[in-house]
Predict the 3D structure of the following.
Amino acid sequence: MDKVFFFRGKSKKQKTWLYGGLLTNFVKLEEDRNSLIGNDEVTLIIDYEFLSKNDFNKWEDMEIFVDDFIIDEKTLGVYTLINDDERYGIYTGDIINFEIDVFGDIKKYTETVKFEKGRFIAGMFVINEDFKKDCKKLLVMGNEFDGILRE
Protein backbone atom coordinates (compact mmCIF):
# COMPACT_ATOMS: atom_id res chain seq x y z
CA MET A 1 0.00 0.00 0.00
CA ASP A 2 1.25 3.49 -0.85
CA LYS A 3 2.02 5.95 1.91
CA VAL A 4 -0.61 8.65 2.33
CA PHE A 5 0.45 12.08 3.60
CA PHE A 6 -2.54 14.22 4.42
CA PHE A 7 -0.66 17.51 4.90
CA ARG A 8 2.39 19.25 3.55
CA GLY A 9 4.10 22.52 4.32
CA LYS A 10 7.40 24.23 3.68
CA SER A 11 9.88 24.21 6.55
CA LYS A 12 10.78 27.72 7.71
CA LYS A 13 14.25 26.57 8.73
CA GLN A 14 15.33 24.39 5.81
CA LYS A 15 12.96 25.66 3.07
CA THR A 16 12.11 22.07 2.09
CA TRP A 17 8.70 20.41 1.84
CA LEU A 18 7.54 18.30 4.78
CA TYR A 19 4.81 15.68 4.42
CA GLY A 20 2.96 14.16 7.36
CA GLY A 21 0.75 14.90 10.32
CA LEU A 22 -0.36 18.37 11.37
CA LEU A 23 0.02 19.99 14.79
CA THR A 24 -1.58 23.43 15.10
CA ASN A 25 -1.48 25.96 17.93
CA PHE A 26 1.75 24.42 19.17
CA VAL A 27 3.44 26.59 21.80
CA LYS A 28 7.20 26.19 21.88
CA LEU A 29 8.95 26.39 25.26
CA GLU A 30 12.34 27.94 25.98
CA GLU A 31 15.21 25.71 27.13
CA ASP A 32 14.25 26.16 30.79
CA ARG A 33 10.69 24.96 29.89
CA ASN A 34 9.14 27.79 31.92
CA SER A 35 8.88 30.69 29.49
CA LEU A 36 7.14 30.87 26.13
CA ILE A 37 8.93 32.15 23.04
CA GLY A 38 7.13 35.36 22.14
CA ASN A 39 3.77 33.80 23.06
CA ASP A 40 3.52 32.73 19.42
CA GLU A 41 1.78 29.56 18.43
CA VAL A 42 3.33 27.73 15.51
CA THR A 43 2.16 25.08 13.08
CA LEU A 44 4.21 21.93 12.64
CA ILE A 45 4.24 19.14 10.09
CA ILE A 46 5.57 16.00 11.74
CA ASP A 47 7.46 14.59 8.79
CA TYR A 48 6.85 10.84 8.46
CA GLU A 49 10.03 10.23 6.45
CA PHE A 50 12.11 11.75 9.27
CA LEU A 51 10.25 9.76 11.91
CA SER A 52 10.72 6.50 10.02
CA LYS A 53 14.52 7.03 10.00
CA ASN A 54 14.79 7.81 13.74
CA ASP A 55 13.81 5.91 16.84
CA PHE A 56 11.80 8.06 19.24
CA ASN A 57 10.31 6.50 22.33
CA LYS A 58 8.61 9.63 23.63
CA TRP A 59 7.95 13.26 22.69
CA GLU A 60 10.90 14.50 24.78
CA ASP A 61 13.27 12.58 22.49
CA MET A 62 11.96 14.58 19.55
CA GLU A 63 11.79 18.05 21.12
CA ILE A 64 15.25 19.04 19.91
CA PHE A 65 13.99 18.73 16.32
CA VAL A 66 10.88 20.93 16.71
CA ASP A 67 12.45 23.87 14.82
CA ASP A 68 12.89 21.57 11.81
CA PHE A 69 9.14 20.92 11.67
CA ILE A 70 7.85 24.51 11.96
CA ILE A 71 6.27 25.47 8.64
CA ASP A 72 5.31 28.69 6.91
CA GLU A 73 1.54 28.50 7.41
CA LYS A 74 0.90 30.10 4.00
CA THR A 75 2.36 26.95 2.41
CA LEU A 76 0.11 24.49 4.25
CA GLY A 77 -1.47 22.09 1.77
CA VAL A 78 -4.15 19.46 2.29
CA TYR A 79 -4.13 16.24 0.27
CA THR A 80 -7.18 15.90 -2.00
CA LEU A 81 -6.97 12.07 -2.00
CA ILE A 82 -6.52 12.31 -5.79
CA ASN A 83 -3.23 11.59 -7.60
CA ASP A 84 -2.21 12.82 -11.03
CA ASP A 85 -1.37 10.55 -13.97
CA GLU A 86 2.18 10.09 -12.65
CA ARG A 87 0.91 9.19 -9.15
CA TYR A 88 1.89 12.50 -7.53
CA GLY A 89 -0.53 13.46 -4.77
CA ILE A 90 -2.56 16.60 -5.49
CA TYR A 91 -2.60 19.13 -2.64
CA THR A 92 -4.23 22.51 -2.16
CA GLY A 93 -1.92 25.11 -3.66
CA ASP A 94 -0.84 22.83 -6.51
CA ILE A 95 -0.98 24.07 -10.08
CA ILE A 96 -2.46 21.35 -12.25
CA ASN A 97 -2.83 20.91 -16.01
CA PHE A 98 -5.73 18.81 -17.16
CA GLU A 99 -7.69 17.96 -20.27
CA ILE A 100 -11.38 17.25 -19.82
CA ASP A 101 -14.47 16.80 -21.98
CA VAL A 102 -16.74 19.85 -21.75
CA PHE A 103 -19.95 19.32 -23.73
CA GLY A 104 -18.22 17.16 -26.32
CA ASP A 105 -15.05 19.26 -26.69
CA ILE A 106 -11.74 18.37 -25.03
CA LYS A 107 -10.58 21.52 -23.24
CA LYS A 108 -7.18 22.19 -21.65
CA TYR A 109 -6.96 23.97 -18.32
CA THR A 110 -4.26 25.15 -15.92
CA GLU A 111 -5.71 25.83 -12.48
CA THR A 112 -4.66 26.15 -8.84
CA VAL A 113 -6.24 23.67 -6.43
CA LYS A 114 -8.18 25.28 -3.57
CA PHE A 115 -10.47 24.23 -0.75
CA GLU A 116 -13.67 26.28 -0.73
CA LYS A 117 -17.14 25.67 0.66
CA GLY A 118 -16.22 22.23 1.94
CA ARG A 119 -14.72 20.85 -1.27
CA PHE A 120 -11.54 20.81 -3.33
CA ILE A 121 -11.79 22.80 -6.55
CA ALA A 122 -9.69 23.77 -9.58
CA GLY A 123 -11.37 26.62 -11.41
CA MET A 124 -14.98 25.56 -12.00
CA PHE A 125 -14.26 21.85 -11.41
CA VAL A 126 -14.68 19.90 -8.18
CA ILE A 127 -11.67 17.67 -7.51
CA ASN A 128 -12.93 14.16 -6.74
CA GLU A 129 -12.90 10.64 -8.18
CA ASP A 130 -15.39 11.57 -10.93
CA PHE A 131 -13.14 14.47 -11.98
CA LYS A 132 -10.17 12.10 -12.13
CA LYS A 133 -12.13 9.64 -14.29
CA ASP A 134 -13.30 12.41 -16.65
CA CYS A 135 -9.79 13.82 -17.17
CA LYS A 136 -7.98 12.69 -20.30
CA LYS A 137 -4.76 14.05 -18.80
CA LEU A 138 -4.03 15.29 -15.26
CA LEU A 139 -0.59 16.49 -14.13
CA VAL A 140 0.76 18.50 -11.20
CA MET A 141 2.94 21.18 -12.79
CA GLY A 142 4.08 22.97 -9.64
CA ASN A 143 2.53 24.98 -6.85
CA GLU A 144 1.66 28.57 -6.02
CA PHE A 145 4.67 28.89 -3.72
CA ASP A 146 7.47 27.54 -5.95
CA GLY A 147 5.82 28.28 -9.30
CA ILE A 148 5.78 25.97 -12.30
CA LEU A 149 8.32 23.23 -11.75
CA ARG A 150 7.95 21.35 -15.01
CA GLU A 151 6.72 22.05 -18.49
